[in-house]
Fold each of these.
Amino acid sequence: MAEKNIEKIINIARGIEKADLVIKNAKIINVLSEEIHDGDIAIADGVIAGIGKGYSGKKEIDLNGAYVSPSFIDGHVHIESSMLLPKEFAKAVVPAGTTTVIIDPHEISNVLGLQGISFMREAVQGLPMDVFMMLPSCVPATPFETSGFDLNSYDLSLLIDKPWVLGIAEMMNFPGVLGLDKNVMAKLKLAESKGKRIDGHAPCLSDKDLCAYIAAGVASDHECTTPDEASEKLRKGMYLMIREGSAARDLEALLPILLEKNTRKCIFVTDDRHPEDLPEHINSMVRTAVTAGVSPIKAIQMASLNTAEYFKIQNLGAVAPGYKADFVVLPDLVSFKPDMVFKSGKLVAQCGKLISDIEENNIPTVRGSVNVKWIKYEDFKIKAESDTVRAIEVIPHQLITKSVTSKIAVVDGFAESNVDSDTLKICVIERHRAGGNIGKGFVKGFNLKSGAMASTVAHDSHNMIVIGTNDSDMYTAAVELIKSQGGKIVVNNGEILAHLPLPVAGLISDEDFDSVVAKSMQLNNAAKSIGCQIDDPFMSMAFLSLPVIPELKITDKGVFDSSKFEFVDIFKPSAIVV
């Protein structure tokens, strides 16, 4: 945005000069006064100079009574989870009304460290969308997995003063906060010394431990899945980030909070979404909330002003004098599908299509990141100590899992998948340093009847994760992903049914939005063809290796009890690995 001419803006606001653009006859959704009122909107140098009656402009657009809302802000998103380059991500979400995102690049940082942050910063230049960043706090998330890098407080201090950095991202290591871990304390103090935000990530944390977590400076949380948990966190002063991702969908469960409590500390976020879920973005959360009975103004507040105020972004998130001219034109307060999207006073999207040109910038190259020690078919075998194991059970639409006891098959002394009991072998293969680690266990909930599926997207360290009914297909899937330097794949009887290569850090495609969506849908259909009953199986699979979320997970180092922060012996369900 060009530097604003204050004198010019003052004269336009007073009606002495013509504005660059005037939006005439609008119903302005005012999130500051919580009312809807008629008026014109005068814009100059990308800023709203004035609202009211009788403004004239060099260019005028008559809305004939359509609604104008501040455009939407996604308060917490990992662009890498879309598997898209940022320019393709923008093509999907800007037409839906999202013109600002606050990203946490901890996915690519776990693979490439500071180079990953640099890559994302360069890749977002020239977009019709503002991209702010929260610096990853947990790379790696825990010491119980192998990550590509370890970012300490010194690494973060190199970037914390940048104007596009708003603070420290989700502090997943809440045991480290409570235990006064020196590295964690250094990161918290860094953010505090700069007056910047610290986002939280603390599923099920409550009572005095929650008080301590908040008192340490952590100001938000996006892991609430029940009204009781959300109420406690609001009561104790946290901002509630209500998440609606592809796998974790918490909005419906938390609607009672939005209907009964003060919503001014509630924010809408998407966290992790696959590409096919992007064209309906924050606007879909607004629509869902309003359909459930939330006031349209309050729903839009949560999608705009609340988020800007939490992150201390001045002059963003409202339609008012002095605010950035980021707004959407809505035909009604039912569909929340914008007819027009304006960014810094320029029309960038219309009728669901991006019309603004995206500058071509040279995306920096990154090194190959799938570095796996030579694997053999035999590496997938598990010596059986029993026909009963402690298995990970997936809970639909949640990141939380259950620890359950289940029957497996035992063949020639080895533990194998039991299709009848839906107990499938799962392996996590270290892929950063060719160290040779392979964590092995069993998972319930995928219902595969044959074949295997694999991915190099496995939060947060992004080692290779493989689930299958037999070792042969699991081996084939893993080898193919090594060849493509990352991706997602479905294999059955040695045949590749679907494959999406992700050559950028093993996380991101270099293809366009339509191509990635098509291949992503092929993957889901292929998974269904071999019996999978989960709506978005690859997203669900990706979180099975995240050891900071209860109850049972698996990393390249083994099966992990996330409630106790200890490894377990799968053949001794009550025993802890020493």
Amino acid sequence: MSENRIRMPIEPRSFAGMAVAAWLTVVVCAPAPLLGQTMRVDLDTVRAGKFDFGKMWTFEYPPSDYFTATYGFDADERWFERARLSVLRIPGCSASFVSPNGLVATNHHCVRGAVTRVSRPGESLLDNGYSAAALDEERRIPNYHADQLIHIEDVSGEVFAALDRAAGDAERQRAERETVGAIRTRLKGEYGAAGDSVWVQVVKLYHGGRYSAYVFRRFTDVRLVVAAELQAAFFGGDADNFTYPRYDLDFAFLRIYGADGQPHEPTHHFRWSEEGVEEGDVVFVIGNPGSTNRLRALSQLEYQRAVEVPVRIQFYVSRLAALDAFRQAEPRTAEAMNVRNLMFSLSNSLKARTGQLAALRDPLIMKKKWDAERQLRQAIREDAELNRHYGGLFRRLERIQEAKEELGPSYGAFYAFGSPAFSSATLRRAVAAASYLTALATDAPADTVAARRARLLEIGDFPEPLELGYLTARLADLARYLGPDHAITRLALQGESPAEAAARLIEASPLSNAARTARAVDDGSLSDDDPVVRLATVLMPEYLEYVRTFGELSRDEERLESELGRVRFEVYGRSIPPDGTFSPRITDGKVRGYEYNGTAAPPYTTFFGLYDRYNSHGPGTEWDLPNRWRRPPEGLDLSTPLNFVSTADTYGGNSGSPAVTPELELVGLNFDRNIEGLSRDFIYLPERGRNVMVDVRAIRAALDAVYDADRIVAELASGVLYETEAAADAAR
């Protein structure tokens, strides 16, 4: 039995002998980390667990009885309402109200971009941190928002009625679009007293097995109040990402303002805990977990293991290499400094995907997934009505995965093709230029020619070293996945290495530079003979055919996933929560350490550990500290808990999520998972995974002893809004 295959009575598809095998073997440059040492077990005895599908409970299906019975408090409707209205969704992350004056707590890494945007000339708030000494120094973040969920409505009946009347994919898409639009219009009319501040989202739960309409109040006046320094918030850098023990002050404070320009007064907020938590305490983490794959069919997970995840890993590796080479070549330029956030994001994705690949190669995990699917198949077979509607569902999904896998080489060659952040500007211009030249040659209408010309000229430049790196990476993609003998590869490389070919194309074509492109367009010298245009002309038909075919398969798969979600809900109801959808969820867990690498990870770390790491690694490393932290600040108790872990079921998007007690006191802010928790894309295993949180006791200590944010400390303690530090000091 290989690590990629488990033989069972209903056998997952074998990939042996498939056409993708040859190119798959060279796809992954970085080895996947182990998700803990899987014990030797008899796979014949492995069965799906009660909570394998997780605990990402929705507020429309609240687990009131489970919470009450398990944790011994009255988790009634009012408790869930207070929890829901205290939480916010911000771009890419979660946050929460922590005072009656609109003060909001979240992670620093959730607002890195916002911190950069509010920095003024000569400032680097990302590196130096920020604390607004007065209310009028809180800086408004441009083009930013925060959403509060004020109403939920199950609209499955309306949507299903429209879908079930439709014939064919096109009509189903139209019916869904029109029905969802009508629902949004209706609910915005009902809850839209605040005008544009109301936003309605219809969310597919169970991959289309149910539909919920969420009505959010959207706040657009959001201001930065406090942000730690990047080096303190991201202490340990990428090396410590997805690991534990950790020592990160990953926190920031925002404030919500109303239309009148005054601090917003929310109806509910979380009280800031004085005591914090101890090992064994229950915590509830509330936020917006991103998309997971727990409810997908086994055949879909096997496709991800064979094609999708390895391709993405290779993409992240190659683009990170290009970005890093650029930073190394020009470390002091503004452009090099600005790619830091981009590299953080890519590094995070790379580590997450390598962990996912390890999970998909874990025989124990895949056997548990197989057993869960076996039980659902059996339930369908034993119910005549379900069997009539869904009996062939899994085989149809398998056939789609087989067809997608045949497209694997194209998937790899063209992954993220045309991405403005990670794709060569030269090649993107070549595609636009080919379209523009075709319009000229065929005497297309003047407005068509003008539109294509504008698209070509609007493509901006990357710095030259980065452009060379991106073009090299794409040419390497073509060679790696399509093979050296493919017509596209031969034309692109002409016997050279990807780096040599990229340098030649950039030198030979005016499309390598926006200014040269504009001159070539203006003087009419741009032609089909340009070497990059010739490459685009040969490449685009194959790319467009791949996009068309893959799109058809994806639409078929989406429809079948909806059927899978509907039958799963019919069989199990609300006992299984839906996959993550970046919509509000609540999850439960306990503060608990765990065994790893032959030792024990403690339930929480302290500032002592922070300074041990700093002194062990030293300045200039990822464990460096900002200047004002290098010597322990006076008044900082180094035994204060800094980070802690729990078994709560979190995922990407839960960053910034509040961790609260049954009394709804805030005890931590979720910011990461351990490496063993990366399997949560597919399964929830509390014995392995932990979510990692920054302790509110550490945040308060830092505010008081390091950042001199007395007015914020006083507001957290008393709920009183102080306009200046002097006013807060006077009130003490």
Amino acid sequence: MTDVVQPPMVPEGVNSLYRRFRPGRFSEIRGQEHVIRALQGAVAHDRVVHAYLFSGPRGTGKTSTARILAKALNCPNVIDGDPCNACASCVAITQGASLDVVELDAASNNGVEYVRELAASAWIGTAGRHKVYIIDEVHMLTKASSNALLKTLEEPPHGVVFVLATTDPHKVLDTIKSRTQHLEFRLIAPNVLGELLNDVVTRAALTVDGNSVDIAVQRAKGSARDALSALDQIVASGLSSDVRPDFEALFAAFAESDAVAALTQLARLARDGWDPEQLAENLIAELRQAFLLLVAPEVSDLYAGDRERLAAWGQQFGLPKTVRIIEALGKTVREMHSAPDPTVVLEVTVARLTHPELDNDVAALLERVAKLEKQVAQGGSAVPAAPAPRKPTPSRPIAGLQRTGTAAARPTSAAPAPVEPVAPVMSDEPAVATPPAAPTPVATDLSSLTLADVVARIESIVMPTLMRSAQALLRTSEWRSFEGGVLTIALTGSGLRSAAERIEDGLRTALDKEFGARIQLAWTFDGVAPVDPAAPAASSVRMAEEAEVSYEEIDDSPVLTHDFQAHILKEAFPNAEEV
């Protein structure tokens, strides 16, 4: 491929780079050697077909190649299939003033009548050797229009050549494709685009730095026209940030897991006029390159300085974090399309990316594991120090069982022996703080206790640990006797038998924990319960049978009455007054 020659004349006042430096010869086309070789050979050996279909991404040279082919077919000084670009025919075609070349846009001229007029005009001769019809965006023709073109396209008049250009060849009718020679254009490699831009900078005497060229190449994504337009914008504004957002500060915030800095940088980019969806898409594009440079550097299409910059960020992030950011942003872009405020969706995602503990997906967990592994490799401890044990919170009694916390100090309990601290052991399992063991109760010689001693300890220590219904039942009972380790409790009538059975297990467990020895319980149902003179006397049988207190309803307030019925009524209707 030869060097780019001086571009042909362009209309006066045209300043855009992609028009001033539009290729004028086959040798000036970049990155499409397979197409140029086929066309130059066809012109040199007089094997040009009557219809061509040029397909490929935008800005890859389809229309420019069609014009060069028209020049070559009408140039009297063709050299190796390439037009001279200096004769009257070549100059007229370059300036758009030649009657031998007819260009039209199928997007705005896709009616059947228009196509019929075009087919009829093909029979009108011109001064040139060939009459070339260039139909751009041919896939926009309706089905009826395409059918109207079929006959002329299959058997055009002598000397007429059709060149159809499209970015979506799959939308072109198969009957059209079958009547043409299909040549596919490809995206231009980054290094080729870089050479093109550097050559344009030199020939146009532009004042730009190498970073601006790199940014223009990256923004172009394989399109020569987009690359020249981006370079034109940078030259006009003098700021590369007008073409691509500057994510350096945001990347630093990701690396440091600094949510404040990340959201601040995001707000700054928004104030600069960048749309949140644009930011997310550009960020994904840059992180994709960082990912490729980590996994398969040869696949990345970055050019020069950008390659080194994003490779460094990829190494700093690590593969798990890079993958997680790309996946999270990809989901965010989809959500932003239907969100009432896309900025909020992007901000929430950025907050999660800077705080992996806020996210419970697999990628976030992998990132946290990778961080711990990195700390271990650097000599740090991956297992955080166990926090100091907190004072246990007294639990509520359930079914008459004793609380975890001690309600009152035990007069006979000895102080627990000091426990030697144990150094933490590194393991793969997360460190878990072991709660302190409950003190072992001191065994009591039951033979030395009297009924008064047992009742005093039960009322002051044991009863506060029981459910309120159990407390109320015991307060309406009579402590009859304590002999040989057997405590006899008398209740009023046999109707309270089921209530006594419900609290017996919990009461026995509480007594065992308090006295350190088994106290047998004996119930009698012929006693007379003490009566509070201030409360009306009533039967407490039915209320004791129905007394069921849930876990949430229990509190530590003392029972204020010795009458079981009055107590239950007070619990059920706390604000009621007796009439």
